[in-house]
């Protein structure tokens, strides 16, 4: 068995990337590219599990690539491409649809959340989305997958599918069992309007999130309007845990300023939330505004972004084709 470490992760081109995507995933992507071979994919086939306007989808794919590069991914170090350009993803997904179990998919909470109350009307793609995610990872025999906490359940399913494939086809260790890499403190960045919901692209209110393309003014306004608390900031973490919005703001502040949660809390304890919000806005503006400017600059040269995707597709396809050949053999496909 190859013991080589390989990182794979994907981001959906479903609109503005936000602070949750950045702290939960992209920052980790960038630090991993220094240590391991990394493959980062714009998962356009996942995006179409809900209806996308074709022209909007195309520009969102390029904007996601621009966001990858602006946050520090280097296309000469990491393979960057879009999922639909490598046919192996859907070919393996079909094989894994036949390995995965309906009972496993029925337990996926994200389907329940995204499908809403009328599940009969959700696309079949949305339901089997986790099998495609398993195919994305296993196609490259990835060993490590950096994701936010919301993807933990899907990753566990990928692990179960890998294990079952190895058992069913009597090929112990054929697929490595992929390890999730979930950041400790910011695994789930919460909405600025409701501390019990994750920050998300699809949330209607733009005030619920900090977008990577927000300017300083927008960041200031959003942080100012962020839900907090009427009482002063508590002295200890146990009191803070009962206040999800306040905890979220301090968590983000701690992460951006590279402080422990305790150290960040002691800096602002006993003060009004406006004190924390000023510090938080400063930290966000310092980190996010340059990224947004770079995204906008890169979007002026779409040919360059297309070239990154083309180069990435060629590299990804070589690995995918080689692995797919072995997978087909294991299954008995001629
Ligand atoms: N709020 C979050 N906190 C931490 N990590 C997050 N991620 C997403 N939201 C948060 C992580 O970002 C990576 C890319 O996610 P995605 O865009 O592919 O899909 P998603 O998780 O469905 O993101 P959104 O923003 O919630 O999109 P919509 O609204 O379109 O569904 C993943 O690693 C994810 O964990």
Describe it.
- The protein is mainly α and 334 residues long.
- The protein folds into 2 domains: 6-187 and 302-331, Rossmann fold, CATH 3.40.50; 206-296, Tyrosyl-Transfer RNA Synthetase, CATH 1.10.240.10.
- 54% of the residues lie in helices and 7% in strands.
- It has helices at residues 19-32, 44-47, 54-70, 88-97, 102-106, 109-115, 124-138, 152-168, 216-225, 237-240, 244-256, 261-268, 273-299, 302-331, and strands spanning 6-11, 37-42, 79-82, 144-146, 179-181.
- Helix 3 (54-70) packs across helix 13.
- The longest helix has 30 residues, at 302-331.
- The mean pLDDT is 96.
- It binds adenosine-5'-tetraphosphate (AQP).
Characterize this entry briefly.
The protein is mostly helical. Helix content is 54%, strand content 7%. It is globular, with a radius of gyration of 21 Å.
Structural class: mainly alpha
Order of helices and strands: EHEHHEHHHHEHEHHHHHH
Number of domains: 2
Strand order of the largest sheet: 1-2-3
In the CATH hierarchy, the architecture of the largest domain is 3-Layer(aba) Sandwich
> What is the helix content?
40-55%
Q: Quick one: how many beta strands? A: 5
Please summarize the sheet with the most strands: 3 strands, parallel
Query: What is the mean pLDDT?
Result: 96
The general outline is globular
What is CATH's topology name of the largest domain?
A: Rossmann fold
Termini distance? 23 Å
**Strand percent estimate:** 5-15%
